[in-house]
Every structure is written in C-alpha cells, then in structure tokens.
Specification:
Structural class: mainly alpha
Strand content: under 5%
CATH class of the largest domain: Mainly Alpha
Number of strands: 0
Shape: elongated
Length: about 140
Amino acid sequence: MGFGKNLVRLREEHGLTRRELAEMMDVPYSTLSNYEAELREPGHLFLLKLVEKFNVSADYLLGLSDDPKGHKKSLESERFKVNDHEKLLIMAYRANPTMQPAVDKLLGIAGATLPSNFDEIQRHANEMAKNLSKNQLIRAKK
C-alpha cells in the first residue's frame, strides 16, 4: 500500500476528517488531499511530524511495512507466499516424519539444500517441477 492510502487509513483510524488533519499538520487542505490521492509526495518534515503525532514509523507510512511500528517486509517473503493448500501439505509433512524421506524422493529433493535467494529458489523449483513431470511421464508409459 502506498503513502496516500496509508495516510487515509491513519487519519480514519484516528477519527479525523481531512480538514482536521490538515489543520493539525499545518498544511493546506488541498495539499493533504493531494497526498492522499498520491498526486503529490510529502517532504521529510511532514513525514516526521506524522511519525511523532501518531507514533507510527516512516516505513509504515511509506508502505515498506504493514506494522505501524515499522518492522520491514521481506521482499522474498512477499514473493514467496504460501496458500492454504500448501499450508496443509507442510503440516502433513511435519506431522509424518517417517514419510518425509519418501516424499523428498518423490519430489526429487532428497539431499537438496535450499538456495540462498528467491531467484535461485524459483529456478530450482522450476527444475524440480520439470523433473517431476518427466518422471510422471515415464511412469505413465510403463
């Protein structure tokens, strides 16, 4: 979420109208309106004032964090989300340690190590998927 949307959310969470916030921040109503519509970007002094008045982090205001206190998002965690079905698979995998070697072998990941960055992980996953597909075709032909 961008600065404008976060500013609107912050204002609404505090029950303020746009006019009230503009007065509180000592900026013209039209300026605040442009910030919220993302037609204009605020300067660092405006950001600092928001941070102090509302006890939120600049990272949160700028959309670098979903946490108002500012714990940063990991770009890799954003790109590597797990859906509900995948969560069930992970839970089942963890709940059945005796089956893990067989599952690892089936997926072609026995003895594999996780690459260090997302692009490598993606390439590795694509390669495993191709190999798995090839293995399924070979089995189907038998």
